[in-house]
Amino acid sequence: MIAYILRRLLQSIVVIVGVSFVTFALMYLSGDPVAVLAGDQASRQEIEVLRRELGFDRPWIVQYFSFLQHAVQGDLGTSLRYRQPVVPLILERLPATATLAAAALVIAVGGALPLGVTAAVKRGKWADTAAIVLALAGQSVPGFWLGILLIYIFGVKLRVLPISGTGTFRHLVLPAITLSAYSLARNSRLIRSAMLDVLNQDFIRTARAKGLHPLAVLRRHALRNSLLSFVTIVGLELGFLLGGALITEMVFAWPGLGRLTIQAIYGKDVYLVQGAVILMAIVFVVVNLAVDVTYSLLDPRVHYR
Questions:
Q1: CATH code where residue 262 lies
Q2: Number of domains into which the chain is organized
Q3: Distance, CA of 115 to CA of 126 (rounded, Å)
C-alpha cells in the first residue's frame, strides 16, 4: 500500500506540472496581458517599459520555468490586477467556494442516494419513471440557465430568497441548488444502475430466500455492496463541483475562487489563473488518491501493488 501511495504521489506531481504547463501556454496564446494591464491609452513605449518590469519580455518557456521554480517554494507570483501575492488572494476566496461546493455535494450525494435506491427497488413503477424523468431533466438543463430561472422565480417574483452575494444561509440556497442539479441527476442514475446490478446477484436472492426482512436485505447486503460505486461518485463529484462553481459564482455574484478565476481570465492575470488552476488540480488528485485508498478499507478483496 505504501509503495502504491508513493507511486500515485509521483504521478500526481506529473499531472499538476502538466496542468500548469498547459494553462500557462494557453494564457500566453490568448493575448498580451501587458496590453490589457496598461490600458488603451498607453503608448507603445509605456507598454514595453511595463513589459520589461513584469518580465514578460522573455520567451514564454523561460517565464514558465521561472514560475515553476518559485512555485516549488510556495510562491505563485504576484497578481497583475490586484498587485498582491497570489496565494493570500486565493486563500481569501477559498472558504466561500469550499462552502458552496460542500453544500452542493451534500445535495448532490444526499439526494441522489434515496432517489437512486428508490428507483432501483421500484423498478418499472411510477417512482422509477419519475426519478428517470427528473434525472434526464436535470442533466439537460444548462447550469447558468437554471440559475437565472431560479433567480427569476424565487428572487424576483416570489422574493423569498436573495439572488446574489453571501452572508447568511439563505444566500447559499439558490447557488447550491444550481451547482448540484446536474450532479444530483447523474448520480441518481449511477446509483440506480449500481443497485440494480447488486439486486440481481445470487447472494441477494439467497438472503431473500432465508426470509430476511426486505429492509434488512437492502441495508445490510445491497447497500454495503454498492459502497464502492458510491465512494467513486463522491470523489469525482468534488472535482466536478469545484470546476462548475466558476459559472455558478458568476451568475450569483458569489465571492469565491471561481468568480475570481473568471475575472482573472478576462483580465489576462496569468499568475492568478495559474494559482487557481493549480489549487484545483491539487484538490482533484488528492481526493482521487483518497478514494483509491478507501477502496481497500471498504472491500478487503481490493489490493494495490
A1: 1.10.3720.10
A2: 1
A3: 13
